[in-house]
Design brief:
This protein has about 350 residues and is α+β, with helices and mostly antiparallel strands. The protein has 13 helices and twelve strands.
């Protein structure tokens, strides 16, 4: 039963995300859609073999209520018991939610996984969530199961973006997790600054000024003459460069610096030396000044959540409050954030 639940919950989360993207909010139509999807998944994985004791408690570890909300809203057979407990058939679902502050979530997850082999069946972790920044810590370990062992095939995942699979693929090329939300990034630009300096705030036309890094750097000089920093800090662009490397950090036991990382180093130094940006830390007060017109910052790199939750969009007087940020592709595509689901090894029998 637990093996079927892992597969079904993975698919439910992905289907629910697509439903949410279409504007539904957990009404009867969305329930019926997810029921069709999860029923077919459960039927496809209906046989489990072996004699291992599985228990009757399904333990899910996560850092907030977001994944729980997807399941409670969209999994047709889920019955809520209380804030941390539910039922699916004769299995009790337990939600172990530990905030990520001060690394508390990972510390709790690590300590529990270390006890996994000797834990009672009802205490073993069945499913847990990870973020891209530390996913490989778990994926490149014996604590996570290959997705194929849950009955989920390559064909089932054919329409997922490759990067969402790369994040949770281990060093042997084995996929060991799935994403239910990705966060592709864009270049957010100050519309008023664009109109002032370029004569337009049309995304397609602004893109021509930032279409690659060499053009981006040339545009920085133009913006400086108009009194603007192209970015708040060189740290704004690091993730864009680093998302586009073509080689790993370690090759044959030696540290390897990818060409795209070196380009970030060189480009950043030129921009700072020319006074066209700064070296502020991300999330610092100085970094945040560009959220307001007086900060004189042309652009930030980020996904939609950056504007919605981190750029003072609800604060009167900010650029975001007046809908003043435009969006265009920028020099390179990238992502920032997302959530991945892993099935813990050693708690459910292979299908």
């Amino acid at each position: 039963m637990k093996g079927k639940l892992v597969s079904a919950l993975l698919c439910t989360a992905m289907v629910a995300t697509m439903i949410a993207g279409c504007g539904n909010t957990g009404d009867n139509n969305s329930n019926s859609n997810s029921e069709t999807e999860t029923d077919s998944t459960t039927e496809a994985n209906s046989e489990e073999t072996g004699s291992e004791e599985q228990g009757k408690v399904f333990n899910i570890y996560c850092w907030n209520e977001e994944f729980k909300t997807r399941i409670t809203d969209h999994y047709a057979d889920y019955e809520e018991v209380d804030a941390t407990t539910g039922k699916i058939g004769d299995v009790t679902v337990k939600w172990n939610i530990t905030p990520s502050d001060d690394n508390a979530y990972q510390n709790n997850l690590d300590a529990t996984l270390l006890k996994q082999a000797d834990a009672a069946a009802d205490d073993k972790i069945d499913m847990f969530l990870v973020e891209a920044d530390y996913a490989l810590k778990y994926v490149d370990s014996d604590y996570t199961m290959p997705i194929k062992d849950l009955g989920i095939t390559d064909a089932d995942l054919s329409k997922q973006y490759q990067y969402t699979k790369d994040v949770v693929t281990d060093s042997d090329g084995v996929l060991k997790g799935l994403s239910w939300q990705g966060c592709p990034g864009v270049l957010f630009y100050n519309r008023e600054a664009a109109k002032e300096v370029f004569g337009t705030d049309d995304p397609a036309e602004v893109q021509e000024y930032v279409k690659d890094w060499d053009t981006f750097n040339d545009t920085a000089a133009t913006l400086k003459q108009a009194g603007y920093s192209i970015m708040s800090t060189v740290n704004d662009s690091y993730r864009v460069y680093s998302n586009n490397v073509s080689s790993p950090w370690v090759v044959d036991g030696k540290i390897n610096i990818d060409d795209n990382i070196m380009k970030w180093v060189d480009d950043s130094k030129e921009l700072v030396d020319a006074g066209e940006t700064n070296t502020y830390e991300l999330w610092s007060d100085d970094w945040s000044k560009g959220f307001y017109p007086d900060g004189k910052v042309f652009c930030y790199f980020g996904p939609a959540w950056l504007v919605n939750f981190s750029m003072a969009a609800d604060t009167e007087g900010s650029i975001g409050y007046q809908g003043g940020w435009g969006a265009t592709e920028g020099p390179q595509g990238f992502f920032w954030g997302g959530t991945w689901i892993c099935a813990a090894e050693g708690q459910i029998m292979r299908i």
